[in-house]
Amino acid sequence: MCNNIYKPELMEVTEIIDETVDTKTFRLKLKDEEVAKNFSFKAGQFGEYGVFGEGESTFCIASSPTRSDYIECSFKHVGKVTTALRRLSVGDTIGFRGPYGNYFPVEEMKGKNVLFIAGGIGLAPVRCVIWNTLDLRDQFKDITIVYGARSVQDLVYKRELEEWKSMKDIKTVVTVDPGGETPDWKDEIGFVPAIVEKISPKSENTVAIVCGPPIMIKFTIPVLLKLGFSEDNIITTLENRMKCGLGKCGRCNVGNVYVCKDGPVFTYTQLKELPQEY
Amino acid sequence: MNELREKARELLQSGTVKVIIGYAQGTTPLHTKPIIIRFAEDSDKLVMNKYCVNNLSVYLTRKEFKGNGTVGIVAKGCDVKSIVQLIQENQVNKDDLYIIGVNCNGAVSELGKEFSAETVATKCLHCMVRTPHLYHTLIGTQEELPKRADTNFEMLQKLEAMTPDEKWNFWEAEFEKCVKCYACRQACPLCYCERCIADKSVPRWIESSAHTRGNIAWNIIRAFHLSGRCIGCNECERACPAGIPLSLLNRKMGMTAKKEFDYVAGMGLDTPTLVGTFDVKDNEDFIK
Amino acid sequence: MEKIISYENLTKLVDGIIQSGHIAIGQDEKGINWKRLNDAKELKINYASVPSNLSYKEFLFTKTEPVFYFRNNKDNFNLIEPKPEINENSKIVFLGAKPCDSRSIEIMSKVFNWDYKDKFFNQRAVQSIVIGTACNYQDEFCFCTSVGLSPVSEKGSDIFLVPLDDKNFAVKIISEKGKEFIAPYLNLLADENISLDKIIVGIKAPEKKFDTAKVKEWVTNNFEHKIFDDAGATCLSCGQCAFACPVCHCFDIVDEECDYTCGRRMKNWDACQFGLFTLHGSGHNPRETHGKRYRQRVAHKFKYYHDKFDEILCTGCGRCSRGCPAGIDIACVVTNINTVANQA
C-alpha cells in the first residue's frame, strides 16, 4: 500500500533535437541507477512527463525498446506543460511516470509483413515500432513505411526518414499535402490515404499500423479495407486527454475502456466497438 | 398558465420565435425546471408558478441561440434585469429576443418547499420590478406578495458591524466549504466569459485546488467580477451545494454601487455599464 | 434478544471515539455537508431527513490533496512524500451513514484498486469504520431500490443502527472490523427483547423506478439516441452532480506552489460535465456538447462501470437531482430510458 503511484521518477534531458518549428524530441535518462536497471517498456506504451511546478503531459515513448538505456519523446508545444518542456535545456530534470498502457503486438507480428502509416507527429509512436522491427529485421518480412505531413517543414525525424529511404530492405514513401512541397521536393505530393492507395501494399499476411490525425485515420482505414486488410490487422493508437495514466481519473474513459489502461493501442475491430468519443 | 401556453403556441406557430426558453414541471409539483421548446405542440409543457425560480437568461449567451433566429424567453422582472444587463454588455442582441414578461407574485427561496411568507425568496422582499421593465408581451396578474423579515439584510448588517478580522474569519470559514464545482459560475447569467479566469492555466491566476487559499481567491475574484453587474437573482447561492451565502457578498457589492455611483445593474437599457464606463465625476474617495 | 443503544449512549460512544484520538465524522447542523465532530454534542443521526447536499466522500477521496511535494535543490529535485493528515492508527468513524452512503467505499474501491492501487484512498478506506443507519426518509428523488439497495441495506456498514424510536437504536454488528471496533464500548449497549426483523420490514422503501440491466442493454445499443441530447439540453455544465455524488471519482492533477521554495502536485476533484474535461491540446473535444457529456454521466454510471467492475456507479441517493440547478433528475432520465427500452 505504501507505493505512491502519482510520484514520478526523475529523468535527465541528455539530448534535444528540434524536429520542426514547434516540435522537439528529448532523449531522457533515468537518474536513479537502480530504477534504470529495472526499467523496461514495450513499443506503443506511453508516459507522463512532468515539469515540476507546471504539471504533467502525456506522450508515447518514441524510441525503441530494443535501445533500453534511454527513452525518447517528441512533443509539439501547445499547452502549459509542453511550453515549459520546450524551455528546458540539456542537463535539466523532468519527472517521468510510466511506462503505461498496452503495446503493439510486436511478437505476433513476427514472420509477417508490416505496413507503417503515419501522419504528422503521429510518426512518434510508429517510429518506436519501426526501430523495434528494424533492430530485429530478420524476424519480419516486407516492411513498408508511408509517412506524410502537411508540409515539408512539418516532417518530423527528418534524418531518420533519409536513413530509412536509404535502406535497401525496406520501402519508405514520404509525402506532403498538396501545396506543402518546396521547389526542390522530390518525394510524393498527396494526402496519405491517396498515397497508400497508389502504392497499394499487399494485404496478405500484413499488419498495418496507422497513427496520425483523426481525419487521416478516418480516410486511411477504408483504403486499407479495400486493399483487403482484415479489421484485426489494422492497428492504431488513441490519443485521448489523460491525467493519471493509471485508469483512475476518468478523463480518457471512452465506452468501456480507459484508453490509458486498456489502450492506447487498439485494433480497428476494437475501435469500431467504441463510441465515437476520441 | 393558459395565457402563457397560448402565447407560446402562437409565437412558435407564426414563426415569430424559433425557440422558447421557459419552465416545465419538475420532479414534484414543488419543483420546476428549465425547458427549451421548438415546436408549438410542446407549448403545453410550459408552466408558470411560484416555483419558477431559475433565471433562464443564463441560456441566452449560448452559442446555439446566437444568430439562429429570435429566441423567446419567459422572464420574471428579476430575470429581465439580467437580460437588460446582457444587452447593455453587448452579449445579447435586443432584436433577437422576444421577452414573455411575467407579472410576478414571488418565487420560493428553495425548491421543494411550499411557497409561503416564510419561504418567499429574499430577492422578492424588496422587488421593484414585479412587472418587468422590458417585455414584448406581458402575462399574468399581480397578487399581494407575502412579507417576512429580511434576515439576509440583518446578517449583512451584522457582518458590517464586524471588525476586519472577524469578517475575514467569517468568510474564511464559509469559503473553506467550497468544493470548486463552479455551480455558482455556471448558474450565473452574467458569468458568460468564453474562458473563465478560473480555467486559465497560462498563467494560473486562481488555483484550481479546493483548499481555503484557492477557494478564497476564486470567490473573491468572482465577487469583484460581478460588482456593479450582479442583478441579484441569487442563482449562485441557490446552486451552491456547499451552502455558501454568496448573496451577502453580491448584495453588499450592489449596495456599494448604488451608494457610490447611484447605479443599479440591469435597470436601464441605454445606461452605460458601471464598470465599463469612465466618468470624471465618479466618486473616487473610496480609493485610499 | 437484540442489542440496543440509546441516543445518550451513542453520544457517549462518540465521546469515547474522540477521546481515543479517532476521528468522528457526522453531518453538520444544517445537513449540508459532513464534518469532523469536535464534540459529541454535535452528533446528529439524520435517519429521517433528506440526505445532506454533499456526501462524506470528501473524507475518503478528498476534494483536494497533495500527492507529493517537490523542492528544487540546485541540480536536483527532492520529491517529498506527503504526511497523512490523519494518524494512521486512528479510525475514521462515519456516524449515521444511510445505506446510500455506506456503499460508497466498496464501489469506489474498485476503480482505485484495479491494477494500480491508490494508496491515498486505500489508507482512508482501511481506517474507516462505517456506522450505518436504516433510513426512514424518502422523497421523489430517492431511488436506492432501483440500484440494488434499500433503506435497510447493511451493505458497506461495519455497524448498523436501526432506529426504534426517537431515543433508541438497535445495533447490528456487521463486519469483523465493526466487532473489533465496538468491543471497548460494549458496556454502552443493552439487551432488549424485541423483534428487529419486524421493525425492519416496517420501514418503507421507495418504489423501484427502473431496471438497471434493461437500461444498460439499451444504452449499449442506442448510444446516439436523442434522449441524451434532450436530457442534457438545459445542463449548465456545473459539477454539482459529480461533486455531491458519493461515488463519482474523476479527478485532475495539477501543480501549484506551496511557498517560494516548494511546490506540490495536487489531486483535485473533477467532473465529466465540465466542458474542458476532455478538451485536447489540439482544440479537439470528443465530448463537446452537453448531450454527449450527459450521456457520459449516465453511461459511466449504468453501463461502463458495471461492465468493468461489476458495480452500478450509483447508490440512488438522489443528491445530484435534488441539487441540480437546472432540475435535471437522473432517475427521471433513466426511468425514461427504461420506458423507451420497454417499448422497443
Biggest β-sheet: strands ordered side by side in the sheet of chain A: 10-9-8-7-11-12-15
Head-to-tail CA distance between termini of chain C = 51 Å
Determine the CATH topology of the largest domain in chain A: Rossmann fold
Relative strand content of chain C: 15-25%
Q: What count of helical segments of chain A does DSSP give? A: 9
**Total beta-strand segments of chain C:** 12
The proportion of residues in beta strands of chain A is 25-35%
- What about the largest sheet of chain C? 8 strands, mixed
Report the largest inter-chain contact. Answer: A-C, 44 and 51 residues
Low-confidence stretches of chain A: none
Please give the share of residues in helix of chain C. 25-40%
Q: Which architecture name of the largest domain in chain A does CATH use?
A: 3-Layer(aba) Sandwich
Helix-strand category of chain C: alpha+beta
Overall domain count of chain C? 2
What value does the Rg of chain A take, in angstroms? 18 Å
Residue runs with pLDDT of under 50 for 5 or more positions of chain C = none
Per DSSP, the total helix count of chain C is 12
With strands numbered from the N-terminus, the spatial order across the biggest sheet of chain C is 3-2-6-7-8-9-1-10
Q: Helical percent range of chain A?
A: 25-40%
Tell me, briefly, the overall form of chain C. flat
- The separation of the N and C termini of chain A measures 33 Å
3D architecture notes:
The complex is a heterotrimer of chains A (278), B (288) and C (344). Chain A has 2 domains: 9-100, Beta Barrel (Elongation Factor Tu (Ef-tu), domain 3), CATH 2.40.30; 106-237, 3-Layer(aba) Sandwich (Rossmann fold), CATH 3.40.50. Chain A is 25% helix and 30% strand. Chain A has helices spanning 33-38, 80-86, 106-109, 123-135, 158-166, 192-199, 214-226, 259-262, 268-273; strands at residues 9-18, 23-30, 46-51, 55-60, 71-76, 93-100, 113-119, 143-149, 170-176, 188-189, 206-211, 234-237, 253-254, 257-258, 265-267. The mean pLDDT of chain A is 94. The N and C termini of chain B lie far apart (53 Å). Chain C has helices spanning 7-19, 99-102, 104-113, 119-127, 176-182, 196-202, 212-221, 226-232, 240-244, 290-309, 319-323, 330-343, and strands at 2-6, 23-27, 34-36, 64-73, 76-80, 92-97, 128-133, 159-163, 168-173, 190-192, 251-257, 262-269. Chain C has 344 residues and is of the alpha+beta class. The model of chain C has no long low-confidence stretch (mean pLDDT 94).
